[in-house]
Specification:
The protein is mainly beta and 733 residues long. 8% of the residues lie in helices and 56% in strands. It has a single domain, classed as TonB-dependent receptor, beta-barrel domain (Maltoporin, Chain A), CATH 2.40.170.20.
Length: 733
């Protein structure tokens, strides 16, 4: 393993150095390209290509061109979301350089990290480094992995974003913007059918209710059969039934004021898997005596009020988010545990032993007030205050053959934070701008826990405990942007990100009378330089950046093989690398695009003796890239005017280690996705296939241990999605 790891590091280092060394040449090409788009008089030449309008984003909570953003950002607009069939985070994660989606198999525990920075398994109810926002309102961590219904724009912001996005935006943030009500009536209904009994039905209606009030409502139902065989119960695991419903009102009481009220509801009934025996020659298979079952609901609402004064805008964003879930599972897969003890799987076929039921709920309230405006010298500024409160309850009843764990664990967590923030961009010259941002956050966390032994033989019959911690966090950013050309901008920035410490969600040490585990605040200093813009009169979009992250006290999960329990540790890390994105439209209708991420990671300090300095950061591939080609051609058929389109995608994710101990590496994998159809103003028809070659791979995995009988490694892997294909149609009125 060490030889493979060393080779991989050396190869990726060489690639990184080669690309960085070529950046000056890229710069020369960019300048030459810009010159090529002009004749001797400076006039633009006519080029047969589709020229797109500038991309407008809200990455800094004000509308501006993406070219002005002084950090890494990737944006998906309405057409991209539709063409790339983006339905959830995993669907776009592989098309965003540096964004790594950690799939634990359990929807409430799936979280992203960026550039090797962030928690890789949630250690507490709010332990995430890339918060997800819907219309400016933060989602609970355990409700981030949602179906993206009626989403109009996705913005992935890379690098620390605490100065504007607040708590836990240590590695970045994801902005989701939903479609707004319209004063023109519209209605859309759509459906899909595919293999594994895939079915999707959706309907959306929008239109005026009065002269100054418009509404939008939508609903979606998605169902699919399982794809992982349980050979004991003769069933297929990982089926799902999902319901989404949305409602939105837009009220315009005056020319200078708009009020938006949004409500979103979702219900997920799934049979998830938390891993199959990874060394199984026929991976993935399961041998369970109880089928896992997850039932969760989310209900969220947001009220946004904006009022324009003569020289500034006042914005109020109020959010209420509620999440509840019940999860039942068998904890002893016969194949894995049989391999661990070298016994037949059927010995673990007892539905009355080793199972658990988990219930949790989360109520989250947020309020933000901010002002923004532009001074006479062109300075763009924003300032605000933010209040946040979350109450999270967690209860687990564990029937375990491991006596200390056989009990009822009940924990409650309360988080309250207050913050003041501001950011301003000052024009120093016509082409040079300076940005400075700062945020101060006071955060308090309280914990109450109760344990009751259910075995009658445990070392502790019952125990209660409580704790309180407070944190003072100072975060911010300083950046320079320079317009190399009218549509090409360079930037350099330094940012400080933070993620507060806290209490572990499930601390099984309490069953032995040991106090609740705590972890410290993680602090990241991030340095980034890059180039972003368009060339050849808008034909070629380019974005490139290099970065270095220095993190103290990152939160990592370490598996203790002596007690078979997960414990929490703080470690120091360093990550650095390069990201490239490009899209070129050489002729009308054709778009060629791609992205590349090269990343080196290292744990520089750890107090855990099993985690060595020099180890790699988990789930952060050293190489990942994507390529896509899309072509559209106008077609008129039977009086219907529209465009025929075809799209092919190739995605590659390199090998990555599975834990801070670097127990083993997951193999690289690649996927090919296809999509084709015909769009008109009134209807669309399309066909799709994801994972065309039905590759079998593992998204994530973790080591359970080495067999005490055979000495062989036994681990659990989370299988990637199988081949999914089908066709669909939408009708618009």
């Amino acid at each position: 393993m060490m030889q493979t790891q060393t080779y991989r590091q050396t190869a990726s280092q060489i690639c990184c150095r080669v690309v960085i060394g070529l950046m000056p040449a890229f710069g020369i090409c960019f300048v030459g390209a810009a010159a090529y788009g002009q004749d001797a008089s400076g006039e633009r030449e006519e080029i047969d290509a589709v020229l797109l309008d500038p991309v407008i984003v809200n990455a800094r909570k004000i509308e501006e061109e993406i070219q002005r953003i002084p950090f890494g950002i990737t944006v998906f607009g309405p057409q991209s979301i539709e063409r790339e069939d983006i339905g959830e985070v995993r669907d776009f994660a592989r098309n965003v350089p540096g964004l790594n989606f950690v799939d634990t198999g359990l929807r409430g525990s799936n979280i992203p990290n960026i550039r090797g920075v962030g928690s890789f398994f949630p250690q507490s109810p709010d332990d995430a480094s890339v918060p997800v926002f819907i219309d400016g309102i933060p989602l609970p961590v355990r409700a981030q992995d949602r179906e993206l219904f009626d989403v109009q724009q996705i913005e992935v912001l890379r690098g620390p974003q605490n100065s504007l996005y607040g708590r836990n935006a240590q590695a970045g943030a994801i902005n989701l913007t939903t479609a707004s009500p319209t004063f023109e009536p519209s209605f859309e209904i759509g459906g899909e059918v595919g293999n594994l009994s895939h079915r999707r039905v959706s309907a959306i209606a929008s239109g005026p209710l009065t002269d100054n009030l418009a509404g939008r409502v939508g609903a979606q139902y998605l169902t699919r059969d399982g794809d992982i065989a349980d050979i004991n119960l003769n069933d297929d695991v990982r089926d799902q039934d999902i319901v989404n419903a949305t409602g939105k009102l837009l009220w315009l009481p005056g020319d200078d004021t708009d009020v938006t009220l949004a409500v979103r509801y979702s219900n997920y009934e799934e049979q998830p898997t938390q891993g199959a025996w990874f060394e199984d020659p026929d991976f993935p298979r399961l041998f369970l005596d109880r089928t896992a079952d997850l039932d969760n609901e989310t209900l969220g609402s947001g009220l946004t009020v904006r009022h324009d004064f003569d020289e500034l805008t006042l914005t109020s964003v109020t959010g209420v988010q509620y999440y509840t879930a019940e999860y039942k599972t068998d904890d002893t897969d016969g194949l894995a545990f049989g391999a661990f003890l070298n016994v037949p799987p059927a010995l673990f076929n007892d539905p009355n032993v080793d199972f658990r039921t988990i219930r949790d709920k989360d109520l989250q309230l947020s309020q933000e007030l901010r002002l923004d405006g532009t001074l006479e010298n062109g300075t763009r500024w924003l300032a605000g205050i933010n209040v946040f409160r979350a109450d999270f309850d967690f209860d687990m009843v564990f029937n375990s053959a491991n006596i200390p764990l056989n009990g009822d664990f009940a924990n409650s967590f309360t988080t309250t934070s207050y913050a003041g923030f501001g950011e301003a961009t000052v024009p120093l010259t016509d082409r040079l701008r300076l940005t400075g941002g700062l945020r101060y956050t006071y955060e308090e966390k309280n914990f109450d826990g109760r344990f009751k032994d259910l075995s009658g033989a445990g070392p502790v019959a019952s125990q209660t405990e409580a704790g309180s911690r407070s944190f003072n966090l100072v975060t911010g950013r300083a950046a320079l942007t320079y317009d190399v050309l009218p549509r090409l901008t360079g930037f350099a920035s330094v940012a400080r990100g933070a993620k507060s410490g806290g209490f572990q969600l499930l601390d099984t040490d309490v069953a032995r009378g040991v106090p609740q585990s705590r972890f410290d605040t993680a602090i990241t200093w991030s340095y980034e330089a890059g180039l972003r813009g368009t060339l050849f009169d808008g034909i070629w979009d380019v974005s490139a950046s290099v970065f270095f992250n220095d993190t103290d006290d990152e939160h990592v999960q370490v598996f203790d093989f002596t007690t078979l329990e997960a414990v929490i540790e703080n470690v120091d890390t360093e990550t650095y690398g390069l990201e490239l994105e490009s899209a070129v439209r050489p002729i009308t209708g054709l778009t060629l695009s791609g992205g590349l991420a090269l990343l080196e990671t290292k744990i520089t300090k750890s107090d855990d003796p099993t985690v060595e300095s020099g180890n790699e950061v988990p789930f952060a591939p050293s190489v990942a890239f994507n390529l896509a080609g899309q072509y559209e051609y106008p077609v008129e058929l039977m009086g219907w005017k529209g465009a025929v389109f075809g799209r092919v995608e190739y995605q590659y994710v390199g090998s990555r280690t599975v834990d801070p101990q670097n127990s083993f590496d997951l193999d690289s994998f690649d996927l090919v996705n296809l999509r084709a159809g015909w769009d008109t103003e009134t209807f669309s028809i399309y066909a799709f296939v994801n994972n065309l070659f039905d590759n079998t791979y593992a998204e994530t995995a973790f080591l359970f241990g080495e067999s005490p009988v055979t000495g062989n490694r036994v681990s659990f892997g989370i299988p990637g999605q199988p081949r999914i294909y089908g066709f669909g149609a939408r009708v618009r009125f």
